[in-house]
Amino acid sequence: MRQIVRQNLASSFGAKLIEAQDAFGQLCVGIDPHSVLLQSWGLADDVAGLRQFALTVVEASAGRVSAIKPQVSFFERFGAKGYEVLAEATQLAHNKGLVVIADAKRGDIGTTMDAYLDAWFGDKSGLYADALTVSPYLGLGATSEVFDKWISLGKGIYSLVATSNPQGESVQKASIHGHSLAADQWSQLNALNGTEFGPYGAVLGATLDLSSFGIDQSVLNVPILAPGFGAQGALLSDASKIYGALAKNVAYSVSRSVLQAGSAGIVEAIESANRELAVGLNK
Asked: Which of 105, 124, 149, 241 is flagged as catalytic?
């Protein structure tokens, strides 16, 4: 079992994540109910189909993985009704003991960012999340200023640091003395909170050469959310090869590669992914 140091361990997002991963492994199942997947499941591309899809994925994930990652945009496209489904699915996942990472990629400053956080971490909207993905374009410091009050409640945040879209490289490769500016700032924020692991995490794509982004795998110690496995080309069996010393910090996200198995096959697809990841982490 991994050890972390934190001043307020009981309320730490990092502690909660590690506890879940120690119990159910490091796999994270994405919930991406786009129209093609709904149709391949034999479901209508409507709110009823959305609900059946999302709740089935949550039920299949519970007790088999540590986390789920709903892609918020696929719920938003149905407007208010889609948000009702998202609230139901995230609350169900929470009740089932899953860590919920809302993939919303919000990013702003001041009261606007505080409102985004309140929507996901507060009790007004009906939505539930343990962590939220954010875009750092307006500055990580600006984001962290309004995030402080949620840390004591055990919430986490994953900033986009290195993603697979080539258009983002000019911003994401900003560095100081050859080190990733975003990754270093996030590590420093964790240190200021008296923790070696969380609540500030990084999204690091599995298909990338992380060294080209200035990511020093030997010193970075933050929770990592890793998309890019399965349909995007990265192999769970290469987990340690890709992330090196960081492998123990990673939530390995799979979406299409398990979702395309359909409602009848998703449980076996998740279990197969778990077996492949176990191989990758023990190489």
From this structure: 105
Query: How far apart (Å, rounded) are the C-alpha atoms in residues 87 and 105?
Result: 17
Burial of 168 (0-12, 13-18, 19+ CB in 10 A): middle
For the chain, the residue count is 283
CB proximity list for 216: less than 8 A, separation 6 or greater: 179, 180, 183
* Residue 96 known to be catalytic: no
Q: How many CB atoms lie within 10 A of CB 270?
A: 21
Please calculate the CA angle 186-188-194 and round it to the nearest 5 degrees: 110
List, for residues 167-177, the tens digit of each pLDDT value. Answer: 444 444 444 43
Q: Please count the CA atoms within 13 angstroms of the CA of 53 that sit on its side-chain side.
A: 34
Structure tokens at 275: 């077996």
Q: Which residues are CB-neighbours of 62 under 8 A, at least 6 positions away?
A: 93, 96, 97, 98
Note the pLDDT tens digit of each residue in 151-161. Answer: 778 899 898 87
Burial tier of 158 (Cβ tally within 10 Å: 0-12, 13-18, 19+)? buried
This prediction's pTM:
0.88
Reduced to 3 states (helix: H, G, I; strand: E, B; else coil), residue 261 is coil
Domains of the chain: 9-281 (3.20.20.70)
